[in-house]
Amino acid sequence: MKRYLSALLALAVLFTPAVALADYDYESIPTPNLIVVDGDDPSVVFYERGADEKVYPASTTKIMTTIIALEDGNLDDEFMVGEEVLGTTIKFSSYSSLMGIQPGETLTLRDLVYGLMLVSGNDAGEAIAKHVAGSVDAFVELMNQKAAELGMTNTHFNNPHGVQNDNHYTTPRDMAKLMAYAIQNEDFVEIAETKTYTVPANSVRTNDLVLVNTDRLISAVDGDPVNTVYEYTIAAKTGDTDTAGKCLVAAAEKDGARLIYASFGDKADLYDGDTVTTNLSRFINAAKVFEYVFDNGFQKVSASELNLQQTFSTGVVDADSEDLVDGQLTMTALLDNVTIRVLPDQMNTIMANVGAITANVVLTTDAQAPIIAGQSMGVVEYKIGDEVICTVPLTADFAVDKVLGVSAVEPDETAAVTASPDSTPLIDKGRKDWSTADYLTLTFVLLLVLLIALIVTFIISERKRRYERKRRARAKKRRQQYYE
Fold first, then answer.
1. CB proximity list for 80: less than 8 A, separation 6 or greater
2. What residues make up the domain containing 319?
3. Does 258 score more than 60 pLDDT?
4. Residue 169 has pLDDT above 70, yes or no
5. Residues 421-442: pLDDT tens digits?
6. In whole angstroms, what is the distance from residue 407 CA to residue 418 CA?
7. Is the pLDDT assigned to residue 51 strictly greater than 60?
8. Strand residue runs (E) in 196-303
9. Which of 96, 285, 347, 448 has the smallest number of Cβ neighbours within 10 A?
10. Is the model's pLDDT at 17 over the cut of 70?
């Protein structure tokens, strides 16, 4: 009981309220290897300690394995797993983190990737490697090639799961680069922030596998003395071996700003032998640092202060014209309570170019009746040049009923966003407007057909004249022979 109370007290000291973060001291974190970077540009470093020292990544390796699976594989592929799920170079033991699959099961690559990221399944890592590349060795080559592409100059992978090997190493800076790349992939983020995923039973394994995310920044664990969930976390991967210690690479997003926290080497002797604190401190420290940097490393401005365009319009296919306004559906960008949070230099650029901000509509729903009021129509990207400063939802202002038969209103391809030349227009796939080039092409074809018809008529007429001349010559010859 005494040991439990000491752990709880230590955690309470670590997990101070967000209002006190202005006085946060990085030196209060005993982790030997640590880096905090901007998630959109990992060359922007907010804090680092031993960031270029060699560390062992343990299961944070699986970030790279997942990226290779997403880029070189197909999540919907269905296939049978074999003996590789028991381990190839090293046989997995009861101490290994496993998804729980068995040889002979038929699974999808999607199932395996979720098993890899949520419960850190080493068995899933081996199965993914064999399916995607044909063998573990070939897959590891892909991992190292990708690391080189990303500028991870002090990294070498030896396996797809992170089982300890002296030739399997990295640095916190390299792993921050990897996570910055990974969170650009929407599928990766969707998988990483999932709390639970179920793999159905089959003829080989008769029980469902309910996979619960083990990253405590994303999913709380019953029995923990402190809730370590951080609401802005979008991806996180842990690692844990005796040699590597407790590891964490995590990403968070708040008001469009992104941060990455990478820490390696937390061990019990740094926390007076307290294993509970050792295990949870990485999550608590990450949450504290995220909130501190979001509040102190970025600047923010409300969207309303920028006077951004908020109303847009588009044509609607098969619409009742009486429901439209001047033949258009109007839509509203949801800018209320939207905060834009960016680095100081970016804020200076925004405030100096407010008048140059453009609005680019991206319709993710076909503008086709029927439409209900408040229906999501897509998003609006507000941009300075090619840089998106924020993205907000776009909704329909009113309902539009459908008229059966011929479309009552044809969409206006120039009406989606009048303020932005690179906006995404609505295109009616059932109708094509004729351009000048189309009319010229049609005219050319018709003239060609007419010319061919004239040629054919001339040839037929000429043949008839030749036949008539020959007929008359034969008749004349017969008359001459008769009178002779």
1. 104, 105, 106, 107
2. 302-396
3. yes
4. yes
5. 333 333 333 334 455 566 677 7
6. 23
7. yes
8. 196-199, 209-212, 233-241, 245-254, 257-266, 299-302
9. 448
10. no
Same domain flag for 319 and 179: no
Q: Are residues 222 and 328 in the same domain?
A: no
* Average pLDDT in the chain: 85
Six-digit token pair at 391? 């993205």
Q: 286 and 331: one domain? A: no
Catalytic machinery residues: 59, 62, 120
Query: Looking at residues 283-310, what average pLDDT do you find?
Result: 93
The total number of structural domains in the chain stands at: 2
Q: Are residues 276 and 322 in the same domain?
A: no
> Contact at 8 Å (CB) between 60 and 238?
yes
Three-state secondary-structure class, residue 138: helix
Domain finish residue from 282, 297, 312: 297
pTM: 0.76
> Left, alpha or beta for 68 (phi > 0: left; psi -120 to 50: alpha)?
alpha
Evaluate if residue 6 carries a pLDDT over 50: no
Residue 161 near residue 122 (C-beta atoms within 8 A): yes
Cα 139 from Cα 147, distance rounded (Å) = 13
Task: Please indicate whether residue 103 or residue 416 has the higher confidence score (pLDDT).
Answer: 103
Report residue 468 as tokens: 């008539």
Residues 268 and 313 in one domain: no
Q: Which tokens is 305 given?
A: 């202060």
Whole-number percent of the chain with pLDDT over 90? 69
Are residues 80 and 57 part of one domain? Answer: yes
Query: Is omega for the bond preceding 393 within 30 degrees of 0, making it cis?
Result: no
Q: Do residues 201 and 314 share a domain?
A: no
Coil vs helix vs strand at 318: coil
- Cα–Cα distance for residue pair 285/142, rounded to 1 Å: 33
What secondary structure does DSSP assign to 139-200, as a single string?
Answer: HHHHHHHHHHHTT-TT-B--SSS----TT-BB-HHHHHHHHHHHTTSHHHHHHHT-SEEEE-
Token digits of residue 123: 């068995």
Residue 467 located in a structural domain: no
First CA to last CA across the chain, in angstroms? 148
Residue 356 has what DSSP assignment?
Answer: G
The CATH number of the domain holding residue 350 is 2.60.410.10
